[in-house]
Every structure is written in C-alpha cells, then in structure tokens.
Amino acid sequence: APPVITIDGPTASGKGTIAHRVAQALGWSVLDSGALYRLTALAVQQNGTNPDDEMAVARVAQELDVAFQGEQVLLEGRDVAALIRQEQVGNLASRVAAYGPVRQALLERQRAFRMAPGLVADGRDMGTVVFPDAPLKIFLVADVRARAERRSKQLKEKGFSANLADLLESMRARDERDRTRANAPLVAAADARTVDSSSLTIDETVRVVLDLWSS
Ligand code: CDP
User: Fold this and answer.
1) Lower CB count within 10 Å: N or C terminus of the chain?
2) Where in the sequence is the domain holding 48, given as residue range(s)?
3) With contact defined as beta carbons under 8 Å apart, do 26 and 118 qualify?
4) To the nearest whole number, what is the mean pLDDT of the chain?
C-alpha cells in the first residue's frame, strides 16, 4: 500500500497547515479528516437532523455528498470551505464525532484517500485507527495559548469574529471531549513521534516532519 504520514493532535495545533505543506513538498495527496466530521455537523445542522440521534447522524455521515477540489470543499455541490471553519460547527463536529456509528460510517471514505505516491492524513485517530500501519506518525502539540492565538487569526482571515477568552474556553472543552470519549479518544499512537510546535514557525515544523520522514 502507498505510504501514509499521519498527523494527529488537539484542536488548532497546526495539523492542517503542516499536513498541506508536507504533502506539497512530497507531491502526495492530503486527507483533512476533520473536514468530514465538520461536514457531517454542517449537514446535520442544515437539514434539521436531531444531533442527539446517533443513528440519524450516522446516516447523514454515510450519505454525505462531498468533494474536495483544491481550496474548495463542496457539500452537495456548494462550496462550504469557509462555513465549516466556524467554531460552532467545530463544536458540533466534536459532539457527533463521539458517536461510534458516525466514525464507522466515515472509515472507508477516509481510507479511500490512500493513493500512490502517498498520503498525509490529519486528524485525531489517523495513526491509531484509520491508518495503524502508517510508517510515520506525528503527534503534533502546542500550548493552549499558542493554539488560541492561531485559531483566532485563522477565523479573522475567514471573516469571522473571534474573542480570545471565548476561544480558549471552547478549545479546552473540545480537547477535553476529544480526549475522554470512548470511541477513538485523542491519544498519541504508541509509535508516534511527538512534535511540539509552540515555539516553531510553520517552516520549521514542516522541516522537522520531513527530516523524520527521510531519516
Ligand atoms: O481544526 P480543528 O483541529 O479544530 O478541528 P478538526 O480537525 O477540523 O476536527 C473537528 C472535530 O472533529 C474535532 O474536535 C474532533 O472531535 C473531530 N475529529 C475526530 O474525531 N477525528 C478526526 N480524525 C478528525 C476530527
């Protein structure tokens, strides 16, 4: 099977940016698995599905009509790339991601991204559940303050307002839920390399990952 580099970690640790840059450097494809959970949340919200109804939410996940085209994320043909970045959608994503049947529904869809010459996959359980045989697993962390500042900047760039104190609280709650859930809790794979990006630039972090890959 083609090689996979998995990049897991808590919210706003920079996984998405690093995954894209590493994929670009290697000429590989990229899987933003969080986007699939965010898309499920958005679809649930838009079609009025009861978010407490596990099986109904799993059905939405199963039937999700999505396409990734460059920067665009299409849900039923509509570009929702900016919409799914809202903190509120992230929070609902984290809620529905705790449901086993939802995770099951998205499993094969994620594995289908594995293509030659390789894949960089970012999320929470890429190294533990989705691609347990990945030859390089990164667990990307950063202190919560650095992550809140990055997320705030990212949201403002997308035209959403962001209050740092609110963000800190929302991120802590989300991390807590992701870490303590029964299904695929956020933990480093036993064979993952932990990288702390708190005081690293994007370029430096990409370099660390590429060096680990070539060593
Ligand atoms: O960008 P951020 O890290 O905040 O979030 P994300 O990676 O887009 O993921 C949104 C939510 O989806 C997370 O809080 C997780 O609960 C869930 N998720 C997951 O359970 N498993 C994944 N592989 C990816 C995301």
Assistant:
1) C
2) 4-214
3) yes
4) 95
Residues with CB under 6 A from ligand 1: 11-12, 16, 33-34, 37-38, 90, 93-94, 97, 123-125, 174, 178
Question: Are 19 and 120 contacting, i.e. CB atoms less than 8 angstroms apart?
Answer: yes
**CA 171 → CA 44, 144, 145, distances in Å?**
21, 8, 10
Please tell me the pTM assigned to this model. Answer: 0.93
Write out pLDDT tens, residues 85-133.
998 999 999 999 999 999 999 999 999 999 999 999 999 999 999 999 9
- Look at ligand 1, atom 14, and give the residue with the nearest C-alpha: 94
Among 83, 94, 176, name the best residue to mutate to test ligand 1's pocket (greatest count of ligand atoms within 8 A of Cβ): 94
How many structural domains does the chain have?
1
The CATH number that applies at residue 27 is: 3.40.50.300
Which atom of ligand 1 lies closest to the CA of 177? Answer: 16
Give the sign of the dihedral formed by CA 59, CA 2, CA 68, CA 150.
positive
Give the position of tokens 């950063």.
Answer: 142
* Confidence at 16, pLDDT banded by 50, 70, 90: very high
